[in-house]
Amino acid sequence: MAPPSSDQPDEAAGSGAISKVLVVIAMQTEALPLVTKFELVEAATEESIFPKGAPWTRFHGDYKGLHIDLVWPGKDPLLGVDSVGTVSAALVTYASIQLLKPDLIINAGTAGGFKARGASIGDVYLASDVAFHDRRIPIPVFDSYGIGARQTFATPNIVKELNLKVGKLSTGDSLDMSPHDESAILSNDATVNDMEGAAVAYVAEMFSTPAIFVKAVTDIVDGEKPTAEEFLQNLISVTMALDQAVTKVIDFIDGKCVSDL
Ligand code: ADE
């Protein structure tokens, strides 16, 4: 069956087979192998669904029974680097949900991992929970709002079938880890940390869109090597592991309902 085009209204979420998948990825290096793998095409600027001025980039196409939209927040207009972090991730996720009405979101990316919790370079995790580690508001209830801990959409069959590791994900807007970040990440009980996941989860939950988080470990945050150096050293090779895992997830999703995941 041909998937409906992305501008058709969605069916009642959860009632039929998944047809529209939104992949949210922060870095171009992480995104391009998947664009190639799924033979996605870039939406031309003149046909962009996004507001004028936004650097957000969308690739789209049909893969098996699915319509895939892959969005990347693009390059910072001033500095020319990938727009990583929670602000860009939340904005592009918000706009994409409104305009594309996906049945499922996959936030894929690289992450730091804690060796004390069993993470190694190249491991791919499915996040069971997400939270922020750099939003400190020491006032009752605001403290919990800042941490923003939430469970992700449960996918027991993906976990069983694809043999991915499962762990909690903690999100903050820095690549390095201050002593405060470290204690907050540990109190979030996280095995992996990134710069987007909890922000994507916040927006997805707001609009009742199931979201899953596939994160591949580029650096060991409780290890000896400087994070930035280890991250850059492993980015390309770990991206291959990430893309293989995302492909397996998408192959698994094809033909299934969200309740089958
Ligand atoms: N992405 C990859 N490695 C990371 C780290 N150590 N911290 C935050 N985000 C990351």
Ions, cofactors and other ligands present here are: adenine
User: Mind telling me the CATH superfamily name?
Assistant: Nucleoside phosphorylase domain
Read across the widest sheet, the strand sequence of neighbours is 5-9-8-6-10
Helix content: 25-40%
CATH architecture label: 3-Layer(aba) Sandwich
- How many structural domains does the protein architecture include? 1
Model description:
The chain has 261 residues and is of the alpha/beta class. It has one domain (20-260): Rossmann fold. It is 32% helix and 24% strand. The chain contains 7 helices and 10 strands. The protein has helices at residues 28-37, 86-100, 142-147, 156-162, 179-187, 197-206, 227-253, and strands at 20-25, 41-42, 57-63, 66-72, 104-113, 124-132, 150-151, 165-171, 192-194, 211-220. A 5-stranded mixed barrel has the order 5-9-8-6-10. The radius of gyration is 17 Å and the shape is globular. Mean pLDDT is 93; it is low at 1-14. The structure holds adenine. Residues 110-112, 175, 193-195, 218-219, 221, 227, 231 line the site of adenine.
Summarize the structure.
With 261 residues, this protein is an alpha/beta fold. The chain has helices spanning 28-37, 86-100, 142-147, 156-162, 179-187, 197-206, 227-253; strands at 20-25, 41-42, 57-63, 66-72, 104-113, 124-132, 150-151, 165-171, 192-194, 211-220.
